[in-house]
Amino acid sequence: MADPNQEMREAIIAMSQAVGTIANSLTTLQNAIAAATPAAPPAVTFSLTPATNKVDDLIDLGSRWGGGVYQDATASLYDSEEEKFDLDNDKLTAFQRLVEDRAKEMGWTSQNQGIVTYTVNEGGVNVPINIIQDYGRITIQEIRTQSEPFYLDTGAKSRQRAAQNNTMWAKTLTNSLTSKARDQIAIYKDEYLVQGSPTGDKFILAPALWKVIMRLTTLDTKMTNKALRAVIKDLPIYAVTVKGDIDLIHKRFLEHYALLKARGEEVDDKEGLLFDTYSHVPDAVFRTYMNKKKDDFYDNVNDMQNTNYEDIIKKAAAKLNLLKVSTDHVWGAPSDEEAQVIALKAELLKVNDKALKLSKQLKDIAAPDKAQIPGNGGDATPQPGGGKQKNRKNRSNKKKQNEDEAWKKIPPKPGESNTMQHDKKTWNWCKHHQAWCIHTEAKCKLGKERAAKQAAARNQANQATVDNASESQSLLAHMSAGEPKQVAYAQFLAQLASQSED
Q: Phi/psi of residue 182, each to 5°?
């Protein structure tokens, strides 16, 4: 008879073996699954451009990624050869902006491995500057000294990203210049070429090259500090020439002020200069608005409290945009008072052209009746009943009179004397009467009268010019004093018309 305990032990052993087999199979399956599952990706470093990803790490220039970064960094800032920078001062601001954008995109502004931040001592204090913007505040010798860590072979950063950045920036600059500009800067190569080791070849120190380019473009031209200040000072005149174009005014101010700042210079009372300039903008609403801002600025109240020239420019630009899109306002529209002056000017032009006539209504406003003026045909004498009678010649012997007048009208022939004897009298040819007369030409009353009238006419014309300006001011004074505009205007035109009829 079989042993029941033995059978149970065998069953337990068989079950244990089966469990072991299953466990081994499960382990094998888990290992297979683990082998088939991809590893988790490494953490990603945030950046806005490829070159600023791990901005302080070396670029593997042997990799596809590194080669792409180098190609992008050293490419010209311009699309064509014709567009490249030729050291023209007028194109400087745009060139400078392109260089700044490339520096940010490529990480050349990095705090640790950047190559555009330098230090200058001002008033005993070390001040950090951006050499792209403030190239005029540091010397080339100081640039070379502060650049030694990344360009000297023994420098702490000579095998780091800073050295790579220097090479890429140098290539960017040379690739962005015209051939003529490259020839010009080559004259000063001793200032920007450096030697990394005692036996190594010289290479370009990019910040020093930038300094040379900026110096040739600005300091070596007529755009001296004095000239730049003159341009900024004459901004109100410029506002008139561009008919108050706010965008052009701001562009001119900011560009020339930036050039001065780059040289370490400053402009006094920038805010006052801008306000003075805005007063020449030919738009009454804009001027009224900026005059209010001017008062608030100097009183340091409302939204102009603790503001500066940049805030003023923003206010002006915002108001300009608002007025230009407004359907209720025409940009450049004059004030009511200015419109009256414009109308007066038009009327003055009409007076000068003798086109203004004195209407009955204006005559009633004008001065009392003028005195009678003698005419050329004889004196006018008032007669009872309002009539007048002219003095007439005695024509009783008309035939004798015609014969007498006929010979008097015959002028002397060329070469003949202007004096003759006739009827035992001495006669003289008078050019004013165009006749033989007893009086000499020098004593001719008609000639003297004509000369006097011509002089009087000239004096009257000169006085009219002065009077017109005076009357224009008088009209504005009446208006400002509260006198009805139409009355003052009518009185003014009446006076002008009276002068015209005279």
A: -65, -35
Instruction: Give burial (CB, 10 Å; 0-12/13-18/19+) of 436.
Output: buried
Out of 280-294, 426-440, 480-494, which region has the weakest mean confidence (pLDDT)? Answer: 480-494
Q: What is the rounded average pLDDT for all residues in the chain?
A: 79
CA 375 to chain CA centroid, nearest Å: 60
Angstrom distance (rounded) from CA 40 to CA 494 = 96
Ranges of H-type helices in 326-359: 336-352
Residues 380-393 have a mean pLDDT of: 48
**Helix or strand run (H / E) with residue 125:** strand 125-130
Q: Dmax over Cα atoms in the chain, in whole Å? A: 204
Q: Which tokens hold the place of 179?
A: 């051939």
Q: Which of 416, 402, 448 is nearest to 427 (CA)?
A: 416
Burial of 420 (0-12, 13-18, 19+ CB in 10 A): middle
Q: 226: number of CA atoms within 13 Å, CB side?
A: 1
- Cβ contact 344:475 at 8 Å: yes
Q: In sequence order, what are the residues at sequence separation of 6 or more whose Cβ sits closer than 8 angstroms to the Cβ of residue 260?
A: 225, 228, 229, 232, 266, 267
Nearest CA to 264 out of 232, 225, 230 is that of 225
In the chain, where are the structural domains located? 50-219, 225-332, 337-366+448-501
Return the amino acid letter for 413.
K
Tokens for 427? 């006669």
CA 244/CA 259 separation, integer angstroms:
23
Higher pLDDT, 287 or 391: 287
pTM: 0.47
Q: Which of 51, 57, 84, 82 lies closest to 69 in space, CA to CA? A: 51
Alpha-carbon gap, residue 65 to 36, rounded angstroms: 29
Integer Cα distance of 242 and 235 in angstroms: 10
DSSP 85: B
128 φ, ψ (degrees, to nearest 5): -75, 140
CB–CB of 274/253 below 8 Å? yes
Comparison of pLDDT for 147 and 390, the residue scoring more? 147
Number of other CB atoms surrounding residue 459 within 10 Å: 10
Q: Are 127 and 119 a contacting pair, CB within 8 Å?
A: yes
Give the pLDDT confidence score for residue 17 in this predicted structure.
74
| 222: phi then psi, degrees, rounded to nearest 5 | -75, -5
Q: Which residues contact 476 (CB under 8 A, 6 or more apart)?
A: 337, 340, 341
Reading the block at residue 423, the tokens are 């009827």
* 328 backbone dihedrals φ, ψ, rounded to 5°: -95, 5
Tell me the CB-side half-sphere exposure of residue 75, using CA atoms within 13 A: 15
